[in-house]
Predict the structure.
Amino acid sequence: MSDAKNYSGGCHCGEVRFDVTADLSKVYSCNCSICVKRGALWAFVPPESFARRAGAEALVDYQFNKRVIHHLFCGQCGVGSFSQGIAPSGKEMVAINVRCLDGVDLSAVTLTLVDGKKWWCC
């Protein structure tokens, strides 16, 4: 993660908060059913680069299809700021919704389109 930086983020109401070290040079826009409806933009990190700071008790877990990803969202405001699961490689990962990171200029982010409908998602 050569361009990795430290970020803080969370849900809309502030109940769920986290810190993450992530490289935002690769941000993914997925076309699977849940990503499209959520409007999420993703950066992927290993679990050791992610630390939940608040709101574990507020998280609600939604799984579907292959049930390899825990789509977590705040039970108070409904925002899904991150998900946790197993990557196609078999490794654990945390998917950070870049839209939920504090102070990130989304106009400066380069998006990589992913055909999640076809190969791996959810």
